[in-house]
Write a structure and sequence with these properties.
Blueprint: H1 7-11, E1 27-31, H2 35-40, H3 46-67, E2 71-78, H4 86-109, E3 113-117, H5 125-138, E4 145-152, H6 154-170, H7 181-185, E5 198-201, E6 220-223, H8 233-245
Parallel strand pairs: 1-2, 1-5, 2-4, 3-4, 5-6
The structure holds 3-methylbut-3-enyl trihydrogen diphosphate (2 copies) and magnesium ion.
Residues 31-33, 75-78, 81, 205, 207, 209 line the site of one 3-methylbut-3-enyl trihydrogen diphosphate.
Length: 259
């Protein structure tokens, strides 16, 4: 077998405990939570928290690129967030539109490649086109990859992947026995993106809320008490420092020193 594995092949190999695990994480995923509480604490409407959240996102993407992180996945809107009041959904969609309108050119200039994960088929056409535009414009960039989880739920993503394999089996192109974790991984929304090394959640909540359930199998989870609008470069660095204090084992044993 060739040692010159393509970057895509290498992408899904876990980092080895005791070696690369102390390097800068390759993939940082973030559950940007606490916008509403940030606003409430200041007597402001929730939308103001979301607005400030967009600023925190800008700062974080810039900091991540400077730190040499290759992939950042952000949870921007969950499949379950549709249960919020219509006015809040309108505000969130408005901010997404404004973010793409105002920031896409800058992201492109900074060589950021934008990827979108989540269910697109049931989105309004204008939103779908906007997401496609962001991906198309930045497709050939080779700097930081920004994966935006929009209308995203991990169970839904896994079900979509399973459904695609089921169609293949039903069509006689795939044996049911050939279904493996690797094959299912390949059907996920961004199958070439490596699993997150670390998942950061702000606001003090300690749960995944249907985010990257499959990909999080061996991710380190870092929960930070601050609300998302207060997140910045130093908070990102502190979360990465916490990640470095963890001992990643991937089910094995820590490599012997000197061996
Ligand atoms: C995160 O902040 C943004 C989204 C979920 C879209 P929240 O809106 O969940 O803020 P809290 O959790 O109510 O404070
Ligand atoms: C998760 O936050 C979704 C996003 C950050 C987009 P939520 O605020 O929706 O999660 P729960 O409801 O507290 O679990
Ligand atoms: Mg929340």
């Amino acid at each position: 077998m060739s040692n010159a594995a393509s970057s895509t092949e290498a992408a899904n190999e876990p980092l080895q405990a005791g070696s690369d695990s102390f390097a800068i994480p390759r993939h940082v995923a973030i559950i940007m939570d606490g916008n509403g509480r940030w606003a409430a604490a200041r007597g402001l409407p929730r939308v103001e928290g979301h607005r400030r959240g967009v600023e925190a996102l800008r700062k974080t993407v810039r900091a991540a690129a400077d730190l040499g992180i290759s992939y950042v996945t952000i949870f921007s809107f969950s499949s379950e967030n549709w249960t919020r009041p219509a006015s809040e959904i309108k505000d969130l969609l408005g901010l997404l539109r404004r973010f793409v309108r105002n920031d896409l050119a800058d992201l492109h200039k900074s060589n950021v490649r934008v990827r979108i994960i989540g269910e697109r088929d049931d989105l309004d056409r204008d939103i779908r086109l906007m997401l496609e535009e962001a991906e198309d414009l930045t497709r050939n960039n080779d700097g930081l990859t920004l994966v935006v989880a929009f209308n995203y739920g991990a169970r839904q993503e896994i079900a979509r992947a399973a459904r695609r394999l089921a169609y293949e089996v039903a069509a006689g192109r795939l044996a049911a026995d050939a279904v493996t974790p690797e094959l299912l991984t390949r059907q996920l929304d961004a199958s070439d993106v490596p699993d997150p090394d670390v998942i950061i959640r702000t606001s003090g909540e300690q749960r995944l809320s249907n985010f990257l359930l499959w990909q999080a199998a061996y991710s380190e989870l870092v929960f930070v008490p601050i609300n998302w609008p207060d997140f910045d470069r130093s908070a990102l660095e502190a979360a990465i420092a916490e990640y470095h204090r963890r001992e990643r084992r991937f089910g094995g044993l820590i490599a012997q020193t000197g061996s």
